[in-house]
Amino acid sequence: YWKLTDISGRMIQQGTWPARTIPIGKNIPLGTATPDLSKLAAPGAYKLLVGLEKTTVENGWNFWVYPAASEVTKPAEVTETDNWVEAAKALGNGAKVLFTPKQSDLDPSRSPAMKRVPVFWNIQMTVRPPRNNEPKFDAMLGLLCTPKHPALAHFPTEGNCDWQWTPLVDNVRSINLSEMPIELKPIVAAIDDWNRNWRLGVLFECKAGNGRLMVCAIPLPASSPGARQLHRSILDYMGGDKFAPPVSVPIAELQKLWLGGTESGATPAVRKFDADLNDGSGAQP
Fold this sequence. Notes:
By secondary structure, the protein is of the alpha+beta class. Helices cover 13% and strands 21% of the residues.
């Protein structure tokens, strides 16, 4: 049988295939599931289950349904930019700002790239020569999300990373918040390797200057269904009365997160040597 359920397990659609002998092996076609996705509420999280009747044998796959493609509408009061100089000016004037830093604005020695899958075991097994002739000082142990935050109201997620996130964050640089106020809690955080344990933000908000700021490490706007839906959810939140970040951070402090806060960026800082986290970069004590 196959069946389609919502995230709570409520059965929505189902079907069966004829009984048959299944040979030992793999990749054996069993049949075609034919759910009618047009009848599903969107955005929504769902699960496709396949199993054997009168047994406990069952397998399942999560999937997500988003509204049909349409242009994302930006509220008039929101400034959207990837230029920090422009963002800082708008914040000084009391605007709501959605800032998406360019990857070149983020210091690669401080803002590690995220991956589709977690690092294997820990960073020591992947970056230390001679195990890795071309070591890269990056790691990711998934995401920590705040599912009930209104910025994610129209982008269904649980507290952990799942497949709707992976194409959005793959090779995208996280934002190192380790030196920001501890009260600044990301809406979506990247979980760093436990050897290093940096505080890494993917989506976070704060008051800044006279305005309110939302920062998204994921490049927006974007054409993929998932990124478009995330963009729509963030803007819907920013355009409403609920957009009230609880923490204030001075604009000058925020600028330290980017390379100089200029269009061209500055020269990346050299990472300080750490014998326990030697990535083979040649850094000296």
